[in-house]
Amino acid sequence: MTSRRRQIPWMYRQSRYLIAAVAVLGALNTGYITATKLFGGETACPTSGCEQVLSGPYATVFGLPLALFGLLAYVGMAAFALVPLAVNPEKERSQRSNLENQTWLLLFAGATAMLVFSAYLMYIMFSQYVALYGAKGLCYYCLASAIFALTLFVLTLFGRDWEDVGQLFFTGILVSMVTIVGTLGVYANVNGSAVANPDAPGRAAPAITTLSGQSELQLARHLTSVGAKMYSAYWCPHCHDQKQLFGKQAVAVLPVVECAPDGRNSQTALCQEKKIEGFPTWEINGKMTSGTQTLQQLADLSGYTGSRDFKN
Questions:
Q1: Average pLDDT of the segment spanning 296-308
Q2: DSSP 263
Q3: How far apart are CA 63 and CA 85, in angstroms?
Q4: What is the DSSP letter of 193?
Q5: Which end of the chain is more exposed for a tag (fewer CB within 10 A), N or C?
Q6: Chain-centre distance of CA 312, in angstroms?
């Protein structure tokens, strides 16, 4: 009788190629975002959510675009998947076997870390952007990256016959804990965001460091008197830039509406009613104007006739 060789499941034979293919797609996705952030430009997106999320406080780590670190992670996953395949199995069987065993554990650890980190970012996107804008708050690039991370995790988990399931479970728990602690540490300043009065509910924007001149104060008072409103979010860097133009004293009388659900004195319902899609958005004399405006522009829009000797 002739013994039949045990047939290797299709998934086991193709899993590394599938992992590499998904990682390449992830690299293209994050590479595009990285290029737009580093070299200027706006990401193409059917909704305003992409630009809102990608310009928010969670989109930057150590002064660099978060997408850059995602790009490096996807490139690393592709490399771990393909490197053992470059070794000739007929001539270097032992070397290839060792490489496969080592890289499989690295692939699983990497996929686990990416999945946990992506899950955290999805929580942020849905709780802070989708909760405010609905479907318009979705960042499709971010959603795609999360799907790629989940796919990589599934492929690494079921892409081979793991002999020591206990070690795999322990590795997954350890990597998840390290990722969660590291993520919370990286975003500690964002999560704790500069609340001057710790007893007041909600998160506040960073402190304004510029000083106001008389013209800035007069303009801020005029905007208040004509019923103008600046729709803002505590985490929005463009909103902070707008306030810096007014200065600390003028901002205190500026008619600012906080739109972030977890912001201090949040008025999310009003922002939704006004269909605010970007920050800052000015409502002046019944007209909506998006983006950071110069004080001269705000003076023109509001019919301000006082001194325009603006300092900032």
A1: 93
A2: B
A3: 36
A4: T
A5: N
A6: 30
* Residues contacting 307, CB < 8 A, separation 6+: 214, 215, 218
Res. 50: pLDDT tops 70? yes
Q: Residue 83, SS3?
A: helix
Q: Taking Cα atoms as reference points, which of 221, 181, 188 lies closest to residue 203?
A: 188
Separation between Cα atoms, residue 189 and residue 281, nearest integer Å: 25
Distance of alpha carbon 164 from alpha carbon 219, whole angstroms: 69
Q: Which two tokens stand for residue 210?
A: 């510029």
Query: Residue type for 12, please?
Result: Y
* Distance, CA of 255 to CA of 302 (rounded, Å): 13
> What is the predicted pLDDT for the residue at 199?
46
Identity of the amino acid at 305: T
65 beta partners: 60
Instruction: Please state the rounded mean pLDDT for residues 120-145.
Output: 86
Taking the C-alpha atoms of residue 238 and residue 206, their distance in angstroms, rounded to an integer, is 12
Q: Is the pTM here over 0.85, yes or no? A: no
Which residues partner with 289 through β-bridges? 282
Same fold, 10-192 and 214-302: no
Question: At residue 6, what are phi and psi to the nearest 5 degrees?
Answer: -65, 125
In eight-state DSSP terms, residue 159 is S
Under 8 Å CB-to-CB from 161, ≥6 apart: which residues?
Answer: 12
Instruction: Tell me which fold the domain 10-192 belongs to.
Output: de novo design (two linked rop proteins) (1.20.1440)
Domain boundaries, the chain: 10-192, 214-302
Mean pLDDT for the stretch of residues 215-229: 90
List CB contacts of 25: < 8 A, sequence separation 6 or more. Answer: 148
Length of the chain: 312
* H or E stretch covering 192: helix 188-192
Rounded distance, CA 58 to CA 40, Å?
18
Assigned CATH class of 214-302: alpha beta
